[in-house]
Amino acid sequence: MDPEDVAALVESELPDAEATVGRPRGVEDDDHLALEVVSPAFEGESVLDRHELVYDALGEHMTTDIHAVELTTQTPEEAEE
Amino acid sequence: MSFDPDPELSTEEVQQRVDEAIAENEVVLFMKGTELMPQCGYSKRALGLIGQYREDVETVDVLPALDAFRDALEAHSGWETIPQTFVDGEFVGGSDVLAELEEKGELAETLEA
If you classify domain A3-80 with CATH, what class do you get? Predict the structure, then answer.
């Protein structure tokens, strides 16, 4: 799965989400992604619940064509800090 | 006496080992490799994050029976990914969750350090 498609999928599944995808191991490595997601849906949710929201959005891709994601989650307020 | 130097763990044995490790330890980390020789960057990262606050973390190496451990862990957490951290029997998360808790200043509290 194309890294940009991963970000697009999260943005389409989570309300008002902004997803930024990076390649922490370098531009050649599409298997290890860093995903930063900002969404008001994270408000009041524990870190674990936030991550589950994102993994739910990625659905079966997480077990089929995404090898590893480093995930960070923020609400819009937290992102401004 | 067994002549098999490295007997495969049965599904039941793995399930029992997971159940006991979660029930009997305040903090347990299921990881790839051992505390001295982590075999995966994410497991190493999780170990390092926990180690800042707790020296008494119990680690369980899942590599001897990876698929059986994934199944047994999923029954507890709903997650199949490794590493997984449990505190007082409650699923906390993998390395990303630990890292975000640390960033938010909540990791010590979560680990009851």
Answer: alpha beta
Residue with token string 């170990």: B47
Q: How far is A70 from chain B (nearest CA, A)?
A: 6
CA distance B106 to chain A (A): 10
Task: Choose among A51, A63, A72: nearest Cβ to B93.
Answer: A51
Amino acid in the structure at residue B102:
E
Kindly report, residue by residue over A7-64, the tens digit of the pLDDT: 999 999 999 999 999 988 888 877 788 999 999 999 999 999 999 999 999 988 877 7
- Other CB atoms closer than 10 Å to residue A33's CB: what's the count? 21
Is the pTM here over 0.80, yes or no? yes
Confirm if B58 and B83 have CB atoms less than 8 A apart. Answer: no
- From chain A, the residues in CB contact with B93 under 8 A are 47-48, 51
DSSP state of B32: S
Residue among B97, B108, B90 at smallest CA distance from A72: B97
Fold type of domain B11-110 = Glutaredoxin (3.40.30)
